[in-house]
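Progress narrative, work stream C.
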Amino acid sequence: MSENKELAAETKATSDKQKTNKEAFMDNLKTVFLAILIALIIRSFWLEPFRIPSGSMYPTLRVGDYLFVTKYTYGYSRYSFPGGFPLFKGRIWYDEPKRGDVVVFRFPQNPRTDFIKRVIGLPGDKVQVKKGVLYINGQTVKRENDGRYIIDEYVEVPEFYHKYKETLPEGLEHNILEISDEERMVDNTEVFEVPEDSFFVMGDNRDRSDDSRVRVGFVPKENLVGKARFIFFSHNDKGSILKPWTWFRAIRWKRFFNKIG
């Protein structure tokens, strides 16, 4: 009789332990699911991090910059959400970008790819480049010589540029780079008339940017992902993943929390 009681108690203890383990597993599963759900909500509706992989936005953004993009600034479209699922058509709660905004958008020819450029032309504008100088609606966009600029990171040999301070019609000032004003196709373009609900974008590194002058073309408002706000981390190529003692010197500390504009 005693043996039966001991066996029953042992069986109950085993059953209770299994139940406790199962409950703990389900609690952990719920926690992981909730964490993923919160991350997806934040990424879809508020902030999303991006890394700069190319030099088309020098000197404003450098290769190795990590930045946050606000998703709510221009409202929401299918491309606001991971995977670009077509939950609805068009754009809701739309607020039009301003000239000079630095925006992340989906490449019209391949919507799985993110691009980042500066908005130069708004719907109805006429945009042209002549001898390296930007014209908007027939008016010259003012630029002033701002010295020389050298890119010596993430390149095989240093690249030398002319740096200019460009002032857009509404008064926003930002720096651009030019190798020359005559040698490249993008230095002399046709007149581009921006269609309704679309935008003309350019990289600040004018001679090293695939933008609306080249393959990108006009960017539909539906393809907008969000507005670039600030840099939260940045590093150059002077460190090595295999040499931890070089990591500290590779970090561009002065770029942390720089506002993008």
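Work stream C, second folded protein:
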Amino acid sequence: MSLIRLTSVTKTFPPPSPGTPAVVAVDDVSLDIEAGEICGIIGYSGAGKSTVLRLINALETATSGSVEIDGADITRFGERELRRLRSDIGMIFQQFNLFDSRTVAGNVAYPLEVAGRPRAEVRARVSELLEFVGLADKARSYPEQLSGGQKQRVGIARALATTPRILLADEATSALDPDTTQEVLSLLRRANAELGITIVVITHEMDVIRTLADRVVVMEHGRVIESGSVFDILSAPQQPATARFVASIIEDVPAAEALRVLRSRHPGRLITIDVREGRAAQADVFATLAAHGVRFEVVHGGINDIGGRVFGHLTLAVSGEADAVDRAIVAASAFAALTEEDPRG
């Protein structure tokens, strides 16, 4: 049984003004998230991803369909049951949402104090968590004295305070610089690996998905349009919106404009190797081209490693005597899928 399961969920909001239609934020969404996994939900603004997150922690109620946590349909919960549910779900936010009047330790302690935990337990738990996120020396500092990355680490510590089973991250790195983003993502990975916590991350950044997630769900106009392992989605996106996200981080087959630039710089014939786990042997391709006495160089593309599995495309400029190039390309095609780019490109 999945830890989180949405079945045919729709969420409709009232018309924003008289005479306008109701807003369908989530449209017949079904998805399963397994215990212990990191699931990334990606989409452009207005895709419905943040609404899905609010449905999972019951800050919004589904208009139709069911939202189950560990087999229990939370759309049927009363207020007391919802309070218990939320204590089992941690949240981290884009803008940190820290209390400026509280110290770092005070911010982390807050959910434990609300839960009525004994003071000694609160102190011990806060100390443990600040050590975990690398901020033990900042316990008495205030948020205004911290960097953005430090604030987010405080947010993560606070979200973990009640030992939740689920952690929801809503654009948690959007306000951070690239280096700090990687530090925060590494910390989330560690929380997943060491604490076994299930993480659902909402983002519009494909690099966050590539770095953090095990599985990805792509949303557009309130619907799930594609889902699968991060490797499968990045290596072979099926939907145009997904392909646009992937193109933001993956060097792929050169498009028409890129081809024109490459042709102006490289007079040889351009061939692209489809590199995929178990299919392409780059070394054999290169050795075969060299054995036929032709010159070649990599002019576009790259190889990507996702969890130890590789994929990508390499575009080569191959030059030499025409017949030799023809023979070399035919011979090299025995080792990999090769495509010769249209010379008119």
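The longest strand covers residues 295-306. No further action is required on this item.
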